[in-house]
Every structure is written in structure tokens, then in C-alpha cells.
From TrEMBL:
Keywords: Calcium, Disulfide bond, Glycoprotein, Hydrolase, Lysosome, Metal-binding, Signal. InterPro entries: Alkaline_phosphatase_core_sf, GALNS, Sulfatase, Sulfatase_CS, Sulfatase_N. The gene is GALNS. Residues 61-385 form the Sulfatase N-terminal domain. This is N-acetylgalactosamine-6-sulfatase. The keyword Signal applies. Its EC number is 3.1.6.4. Coiled coil: none annotated. The active site is at residues 109, 172. GO terms for molecular function: arylsulfatase activity; metal ion binding; N-acetylgalactosamine-6-sulfatase activity. GO terms for cellular component: lysosome. It comes from Delphinapterus leucas. The keyword Calcium applies.
Length: 578
């Protein structure tokens, strides 16, 4: 018998027609037709599943999630980028629905990707670290954690409705064999487990591998060259072909598909192929965006050519805000928003977002729904006629009523760094309980998450606690978070009255997952073989932490000896300066 979560996940839903439209003339007939169609195939799915002999049931819609890497809210023409170099994405928005208030779940790659595929805040799935307050974490090569088996990923659940799933591009949910995407529901993979940093010397640290399904087919900077000097790499073209081939094959086989196109040309070091290099007014970063835009145009064109556009739901967004530490040469734009990647200001968390499903989502709509990357999980299940698992907290909303009927749902947005709840938005009000950009130490070395944007008392370089008197901003009037409301104002008190109970409820119910992204896993560090990356900052950090503890556990003792053997720390003062 299937375990309970499987049973919960496989329930095909027939919820009856959506409730009547609420007075939106613009949405009228098209939305009604979409609702009717969605309802019809759900009914057929249920009848079919119940063995009532229904044959030839229409397929649930294909799902195509286009996830960008470090692309900012302000990088598309439709979001106001002055060069207007994204005609295909702008057209996609004109044919679909734009979400100006759409958020990721963490301002860093790994946790936000885990959130998309699980529908859960990273604090629940374990995609955080306990190594330091408010510390963001991800999965570089030496992190041994990854997506736990206990998490249910979107492709695993979609399998129950007959979907074939492929991920193209960056996985970033763990590089060890047990975390491989094909062990977590994907049927196919072409891409890498990590960022395309490098080149490395291939001795102490190998270049990042590239996989086709189970097989490693090469490495970045070797079989898959990236020229750091010129910015030339053919990767976006390869990822485009992977997408087009997959779509054609699934269409020919009449199978519903889920394609997660998680490409990374806009993550530093940014790259583009030769025909796009030097073509943007924005420099190399713009070249990368132009190639992505062109590729999205080709993908949507293929869907039309194959006559499956009306049966394919497409959503475009990014995993976190633009990396301003690399801007303007290697990083994008967060438009009017404060700071960028790594921070819980709007620039780190608010993302470009476009939904496209011709004949269903009415064209040229702007939705002010507060949306989240985690909604893509729940919405995709809804499209497949599935319900989210009932045995765990799910943070994603089903956005279909928003997209098909224009309905708005009141919901908070939680902004985490690591395991620290930094801020919460409800409606137009955002309350910061902690402010922090990066440490003074880093800042003095030239690392700046908010270049040219310092706001006194807001973009702080020490961790400032405001849990008793949060900093509150009205994001409608002040999207750049520059003018905190006066704590003596009625508006401030009203805003807190709305937000405080939401925070209390969230924190009381929260059950954090086992942290997966600690750089300092004692059991692993005890193995001196694991210290082969001994020059890396995370190993140095871990050794320093191990040496500072007094624990007498076996793992701890072995880890201490391994660190000492690796020559990282000689029990003396050197560690304090690492
Ligand atoms: Ca990213």
C-alpha cells in the first residue's frame, strides 16, 4: 500500500466549477472557457482514474517553468529596463499576465530552488544553516547536504498524473549521488549540480561536472568551455536545444510534460554565445539577457508551431534578485528596489514574473496578487488535477483563481535569511524585524550588496534587531524602502496590528527541518578525505568552529584531528585570523 503522503498526493481532484467571476469584464468569456475546460478534463481524469472506462481523456496541460538565475526585477523591457532589449519576454507579458509583486523564498540560489520544487519555505525543508545568525547558505562542492528524501518534489507528484519531467540547467539541491534529480522525480536532466564558477585546477578542486541524466558528460571550462575573457559560451544554445528537443518528443508521444528550464547565463560569470556578444547596450550582462529573451521566443514559437500553446502553461521568473556585488558588468538591475541578492530588501527578493497560457489566462493583465515562487508548486499540481500533500505544511498558493478569474488572496510574504525571519509583508506593509546587508569586515574588503544605495539605519552592516519596534515601510508609496513610517503614527500601529498576529501564528506553528546546508557537518569532517578542499573558506570556517568547541564526542575528536592533519589549524592563534 502506498505511504500516506503518496495517497494524499495522488488524489485527483474534481472540485466542481470555480465560483462565479467577480465582476471582471476584462476576464469574462475567456476565463469562463478556461474554467470549463479545466473542469472538464479534471472530471475525465477522475472518471478515468476510477476505472469507469472513459477513453481518450484530454491531457492535463503541459507545465513549463522558466527559472532565471540572479535576474533582477528591472531587467526586462516590460518592467521598465531602459534599453528595451527583451521583445520576446515583453510580448509574453502582453499575451499573458504580469505579476509585479512576485517573491522568491530566499535571496540565494539553492534555498529558492528547493522552495519552488517543494512548495515550502526553506526553513521547513532544511535548506538553511545554523552556522551563524541570518547566514544565507547554498550547496557549493564541499557541502554534503541536499534535498532530503522526505521532501516531495513537484516532478515526483506530477508523475502520478502521467507527466514526464525534465530539468535543464542548474540543479543546486545537492551534488552527492542521493540528491541526483533523477532520484527526486525528474525523468531527464541535462545540466550541472552547481554554479559554473571556475576554472579550478582539477587537483584540489575539480571543475563543475555537466550531466546528461545519470552520466557525467563533461565539465565546465573543459568539454563545455566558458571564456572568462570574452564572455563567450554556448551553454544557453545547448540548453535551448535541450528544451526544444524535449518538447518535440513529448508532443510526439502525446505525453503531458513538465519542463524546468533552469538556465544560468545571468549568474556571474555571465556569458553569451558569439552571435549575441556585443549586441546589447548594457554590456555582457545584457548580451546574456538578449540571448535568453531570444531563446524564450523560440520556445514559445515552437509551442505554437506544434499547436500545443493552448495546452501549455508557461511561467517565467528568477531565483533571487540581481547580484549587485557583480553589477553593472556581471550583474543585473533590481529596478527601483533596494539592494540585491543575499538581502531581504525588495531588491533581493522581488522577482520578474510572467504567466502565459493562451486561451486561458487573458492577455495583457497585471495582477497585484502577492505571489511566491512556492506558488508554482501548488499551481502546477492544480493544473495536473492533483492536490498538494496533506501531511506537511505547504506555503504555496494555487494561483489559478488569480490567473483565470482575477481573484486576489490576502497572504503574507515571509523573508528569511538562513533560519532568521528578517521581515514580513502583508498587503502594502513590510515590517523588518532584523536589518543587515553584510558584515563591516566584508564591506571594508569591498563587498557591497547595496552599492550606491545606502540608507541610514536601514542598510546596516551590523545585525540590527527591531523585533520590538519593527521598521515598517509602505511598499506602494515607497517601493525602495527609504522612508520608514514614524513609530508614533496611527498608520504604523495599524500596520503592526495586521502583521504581528501573522508572525506569531507562523512562528508558533513552524517546525524547522533538519539543517542541510551547514558547512560543518562533524561526521563528515571527521573523514580527512573530505578535507581535500582544504583551502576553501567553508572548510576553514568549519575547522575554526570545531576547534572552538569543547565537545568530547567521537565525531568531534576525529574532526579535530582531521582538521589538524589537514594543516588548517595548528591549535594556535592562526585560526582566529582565518
Ligand atoms: Ca541565483
Amino acid at each position: 500500500m502506498a505511504p500516506p503522503h503518496r495517497q494524499a498526493g495522488r488524489v485527483a481532484r474534481f472540485a466542481g466549477p470555480f465560483p462565479p467571476l467577480r465582476g471582471s469584464v476584462a476576464l469574462g468569456v475567456v476565463a469562463m472557457a478556461a474554467v470549463a475546460a479545466a473542469t472538464r478534463w479534471r472530471l475525465l481524469l477522475v472518471l478515468s482514474a476510477a476505472g469507469l472506462g472513459v477513453t481518450g481523456a484530454p491531457q492535463p496541460p503541459n507545465i513549463l517553468l522558466l527559472l532565471m538565475d540572479d535576474m533582477g526585477w528591472g531587467d526586462l523591457g516590460v518592467y521598465g529596463e531602459p534599453s528595451r532589449e527583451t521583445p520576446n519576454l515583453d510580448r509574453m507579458a502582453a499575451e499573458g499576465m504580469l505579476f509585479p509583486n512576485f517573491y522568491t523564498a530566499n535571496p540565494l540560489c539553492s534555498p529558492s530552488r528547493a522552495a519552488l520544487l517543494t512548495g515550502r519555505l526553506p526553513i521547513r525543508s532544511g535548506f538553511y544553516t545554523t552556522n551563524g545568525h541570518a547566514r544565507n547558505a547554498y550547496t557549493p562542492q564541499e557541502i554534503v547536504g541536499g534535498i532530503p528524501d522526505s521532501e516531495l518534489l513537484l516532478p515526483e507528484l506530477l508523475k502520478e498524473a502521467g507527466y514526464t519531467s525534465k530539468i535543464v540547467g542548474k540543479w543546486h539541491l545537492g551534488h552527492r549521488p542521493q540528491f541526483h534529480p533523477l532520484k527526486h522525480g525528474f525523468d531527464e536532466w541535462f545540466g550541472s549540480p552547481n554554479c559554473h564558477f571556475g576554472p579550478y585546477d582539477n587537483k584540489a578542486r575539480p571543475n563543475i561536472p555537466v550531466y546528461r541524466d545519470w552520466e557525467m558528460v563533461g565539465r565546465f571550462y573543459e568539454e563545455f568551455p566558458i571564456n572568462l575573457k570574452t564572455g563567450e559560451a554556448n551553454l544557453t544554445q545547448i540548453y535551448l536545444q535541450e528544451a526544444l528537443d524535449f518538447i518535440k518528443r513529448q508532443q510526439a508521444a502525446h505525453r503531458p510534460f513538465f519542463l524546468h528550464w533552469a538556465i544560468d547565463a545571468t549568474h556571474a560569470p555571465v556569458y553569451a554565445s558569439r552571435p549575441f556578444l556585443g549586441t546589447s547596450q548594457r554590456g555582457r550582462y545584457g548580451d546574456a539577457v538578449r540571448e535568453i529573451d531570444d531563446s524564450v521566443g523560440k520556445i514559445l514559437h515552437l509551442l505554437r508551431d506544434l499547436s500545443i500553446a493552448e495546452n501549455t502553461f508557461v511561467f517565467f521568473t528568477s531565483d533571487n534578485g540581481a547580484a549587485l556585488i557583480s553589477a553593472p558588468r556581471q550583474g543585473g538591475s533590481n529596478g527601483p528596489f533596494l539592494c540585491g541578492k543575499q538581502t531581504t530588501f525588495e531588491g533581493g527578493m522581488r522577482e520578474p514574473a510572467i504567466a502565459w497560457w493562451p486561451g486561458h489566462i487573458p492577455a495583457s493583465q497585471v495582477s497585484h496578487q502577492l505571489g511566491s515562487i512556492m506558488d508554482l508548486f501548488t499551481t502546477s499540481l492544480s493544473l495536473a488535477g492533483l492536490e498538494p500533500p496533506r501531511d506537511r505544511a505547504i506555503d504555496g498558493l494555487d494561483l489559478l483563481p488569480t490567473m483565470l478569474q482575477g481573484r486576489l488572496t490576502d497572504r503574507p510574504v515571509f523573508y528569511y535569511r538562513g533560519n532568521t525571519l528578517m521581515a514580513v509583508t502583508r498587503g502594502q506593509y513590510k515590517a523588518h524585524f532584523w536589518t543587515w546587508t553584510n558584515s563591516w569586515e566584508e564591506f571594508r574588503q569591498g563587498v557591497d550588496f547595496c552599492p550606491g544605495q545606502n540608507v541610514s539605519g536601514v542598510t546596516t552592516h551590523s545585525q540590527e534587531e527591531h523585533t520590538k519596534l519593527p521598521l515598517v515601510f509602505h511598499l506602494g508609496r515607497d517601493p525602495g524602502e527609504r522612508f520608514p513610517l514614524s513609530i508614533a503614527s496611527t498608520e504604523y500601529l495599524d500596520a503592526l496590528r495586521q502583521i504581528t498576529p501573522v508572525v506569531r501564528q507562523h512562528q508558533e506553528a513552524l517546525v524547522p527541518g533538519q539543517p542541510q546546508l551547514n558547512v560543518c557537518n562533524r561526521a563528515v569532517m571527521a573523514d580527512s578525505q573530505q578535507l581535500h578542499h582544504r583551502g576553501s573558506p567553508s572548510v576553514l570556517f568549519c575547522c575554526r568552529e570545531i576547534m572552538a568547541t569543547q565537545s568530547k564526542s567521537a565525531h568531534e575528536g576525529a574532526a579535530r584531528r582531521a582538521c589538524a592533519e589537514a594543516g588548517q589549524l595548528s591549535l594556535g592563534h592562526r585560526g582566529r585570523h582565518l
